[in-house]
Amino acid sequence: MKQEYRLFRRGSSGSFFLQDRATGKQTSLKTQDRAEAQRRLHAHNKAHEQPLLNIQIGRAYLAAADPAVGTRTWQTAMEEYAKTKQGETLARWQRAMKDHAFDPVRHRIIVETRAEELLAAVEQGTVSTNVFLRKLHNFWQNMNWLPWPIIPKRQWPVVRFKEKRAITFAEHADIVERETNSERRAFYQFLWHLGGSQGDVAGLNADDVDWRNRLISYRRQKTKQTAQIHFGDAVAKTLEGLPKTGPLFPYLRSIRASDRATEFKQRCRGLGIEGITLHSYRYAWAERAKTAGYPERYAMEALGHNSNAVHRTYARNAQVQLPALEECEKAALTQKVIPMPSGCRGESAVAPLAGR
User: What are 314-332's pLDDT values in tens digits?
Assistant: First the structure.
């Protein structure tokens, strides 16, 4: 059995040191006596030998049930987990796995990984490192590649996301006014009025627009649910300058989400606007909906954030057609009522906005 520690001396008459062969860590024995240093070396190796022997015995038992347990690395887990993803989710996963914070454990055998190695990766990386490493940890544990967690659930470092905020109307107006590209300008207008994710809005087609009923319908890329929302005069005016067939945003649809985000960030930087991303349009839509008295269940449907309980209670297996937020905002200012879609079971023909 290979010994864990080796002995070396600094200089011809200096003190003796121990070096961990696995980590390279060096520790002074604080003695210049070779015989004493040899005794301490022997004691350290003996102390390490029994736990190591127990690990090898345990590995032998695990190998009987799973022959690959001694060769399966974190890179293996990354590749296997990627097989459960597709589309944009797969691309996002593959980008995340290139994080250099994973490099110290990437080719480490899973059953030999120590908790401090994972914690060091989390400390070296970002919030994303913490989130994706947790997913990997849970994945191989659910796959029974190891019957116990390396880091107990309660001992994982807390995930602390950066503060996020909504884009204000003034900021949106400045961005649209400064934007010289008509397609991007219309894209930002759609994000403001529809509250859709950047990927869903960029993927809209002319066939998704029902002019007769002033309705836009599309299938969400993330949840695969169908979103339907009525649009007002502002969206109608913007639609007039967009293609009448095929993709509404042909260029923005063809590029990556990260490229759209970068272009938006450049516009914000040029205007001195900080703290927002394209996703801030969704936050803004939700805040505007709440302020205007837009019924919560419709807001959840429009944003694609609806629980099964809410859907069962209000949707009753029917596809909800959502009124335009623009009309709700106008009605809120005049304390009027707006007609609710007849397809919503259990709702009256009109619903007052005041007091909601």
Answer: 333 334 456 777 877 777 7
Whose tokens are 């509404």? That residue is 248
Q: Both 232 and 332 in a single domain?
A: yes
Over residues 260-283, the mean pLDDT reads: 91
Amino acid making up residue 53? L
Q: In what order do the strands lie in the sheet with 5-9?
A: 5-9, 16-20, 26-28
Q: Looking at residue 245, what is its pLDDT? A: 93
Give 351's pLDDT tier (boundaries 50, 70, 90): very low
Residues 117, 173, single domain; the answer is no
Structure tokens at 250: 């042909």
Alpha-helix runs per DSSP H in 17-168: 34-65, 74-82, 87-96, 103-106, 115-124, 127-142
Phi, psi of 56 (to 5 degrees): -65, -35
**Shared-domain flag, residues 343 and 305:** yes
CA-to-CA dists, residue 84 to 20, 58, 89, 139, 144, angstroms: 39, 30, 10, 11, 17
Tell me how far the alpha carbon of residue 36 is from its chain's centroid: 55
Distance set, CA 208 to CA 73, 233, 240, 304 (Å): 46, 17, 14, 17
Q: How many domains does the chain have?
A: 3
Look at phi and psi of residue 219 and say left if phi exceeds 0, alpha if psi is from -120 to 50, else beta.
beta
Last residue of a domain, one of 65, 81, 109: 65
Which structural domain range is residue 23 located in? 5-65
Please, what sign has the CA dihedral across residues 244, 191, 255, 208?
A: negative
SS3 sequence of 257-283: HHHHHHHHHHHHHHHCCCCCCCCHHHH
